[in-house]
Amino acid sequence: MQELKLNQNINQLHFIHSAKNSAGGITEYHFEYAYDISAKGQLKLIPQLPLPDRPFIHLYTQIKGAGIIGQWLPDSGLRKQLIGDWTCPSEINLSHSAPVICFFDGQDKNVCTISISEVSKNVHLLAGVHEETGELTLHIVVYLSAPVNPQQISVRFDQRSLAFGEVLRDTVYWWDALLPDAPMEIPDSARLPMYSTWYAYHQNMTDQSLTKEYETAAEMGMRGVIIDDGWQTADNNRGYGFCGDWNPETGKFPDFSLHIRKIHDLGMKCMIWYSVPFMGEYSKTWSSFENMLLHYDPVLHTGVLDPRYPAVRRYLISTYQKALKDWDLDGFKLDFIDSFHSYPDTPQWNKKMDFCEIQDAVYCLMLEISRTLKKEKPELLIEFRQNYIGPQMRRFGNIFRVGDCPMSGITNRVAITDLKLLSGSTAVHSDMIMWSADETAENAAVQLINCIFSTLQISVRLNDLTSRQKKALEHYLHFSVAYRDVLLTGTFTPSSPLGQYPVLCAQKNGIWICAVYNSRQAVRFPENSGLQEYWMLNGTAENTVFILSSGKLMGELTVFDCCGDKVSQQSSENLGSLRELTVPSGGSLRFRAADL
User: Fold this and answer.
1) How far is residue 221's CA from residue 153's CA, in Å, rounded to a whole number?
2) In the sheet where 578-582 sits, what is the strand order?
3) How big is the CA angle at 121 (ends 136 and 29), to the nearest 5 degrees?
4) Contact call for residues 206 and 249 (beta carbons, < 8 A)
5) H runs (alpha helix) in 423-535
6) Which residue in 76, 138, 144, 71 sits closest to 110, CA to CA?
7) What burial class does residue 112 get, using C-beta atoms within 10 Å of its C-beta: 0-12 exposed, 13-18 middle, 19+ buried?
8) d(Cα 492, Cα 512) in Å, to the nearest integer?
9) For the segment 339-360, what is each residue's pLDDT rounded down to a tens digit?
């Protein structure tokens, strides 16, 4: 790596020092900056960006490309291939993604991971192949808004040849050590399966129809309910024009408090949905806030509230506080946080605002929401959806959910894995799992296996399921609860990010669980004397799995189908060096090692 270079249009910025970590392979570059004037500058090296109209810091360097085959970003999803340095940069701020990029090799090892200490302000991050040299050009642009006292920014280069997932987890620890507020506590209920109303009912919900679903959900092993969009409006057209008043629609819920008591009586937690930034133009509250908006969207018939106004923040906080008390809620699904950003029609700062920077106001809003509500209910649950899943967001919420990907098991699997690598102890939830009414139980089970290393959220009409669909779902719900310690908090090992993670494994307390998603993918069983129980879940459409071992493992091998019914069992089984085993699609294999 060449020297980290500077390009800025602020009147004070200087390099303090670079420091190599005692662990070796890690270098941190530390800078201090301050300014008291505003002037336009030029980013001659990044033609994709518009001319900045505010102060910025621009850091750039080149990274040797040898051995690198792909790049990992928090929001790269299914696209982790290398890109050219002429492509558009990633836009990052407090409420969108996180400032880190990892370059990995063909053995799933880190080549270079770059992370930035600035996790709130607007950042542009671009790393791409420079065609002329075969190097990777890295650009980091941090935008500044208001005059500030001297501050510091650090850029961390981790070039240790470790598993890329391990390096990303260390990046999380680095951020945690820098940030003043601790991540929000995670109660046990954040890691138990939940039923969501969204895909099953969208806005077409009623007290009676949902109550029947809750009863079945509780019987099947779900321990929480998320009442999504629709509880607050009679309009079922999936718009946001009626958001803002946040009163239960009496035509759907004659007594909302009673409805929630029914959920609690079933032994389940209850969370409800709010679109935090949206103030619908048809709401009664619209007239109070129509002049305190970041943006108006005529298609969605809603405004995006401007959190720089104290009145906006007070209104939102008091709304959630009142709901928590009046209805005895257990938590909130706080949606669309990433809509808090600057738009072409965003007004300039005025004297009624107490923040100049939007993301600073978002931080204040979200931290105050979390603190205020936790005083009322210490084991509060707050869910955020991809991509507002950065380091700061962990301070305000304890559940990160995959972004909407209906019926796409592969998208769910990749996003779950990416979230787990960057979320620390924060609970990671699947996007709501749904399938077609005439889907086979095997294919439904494959979807569940795609999500098995997360807390499962389910959103199908449970009382309309076929008997085999229901049995498969119930089986994997019970499996996910029984082995949640391993699946959710065990040592998690992803493989082949360019291949969409075809094998995922977790290990804890003598138990190893592996899921395979590509047909004819051989999986090596770890031969560790501390392991007593091995599971292999067949997340493919084939009825065969392949196992590699040294041939020294002896024990009892049991095969189950997608519903958890036993298919076969063999005692004193020697796994052999390479074995092809019959395991039904959506089914599983359990191996219990013999005591030697």
Assistant:
1) 47
2) 522-524, 544-548, 578-582
3) 50
4) no
5) 441-450, 467-482, 484-489
6) 71
7) buried
8) 10
9) 999 999 999 999 999 999 999 9
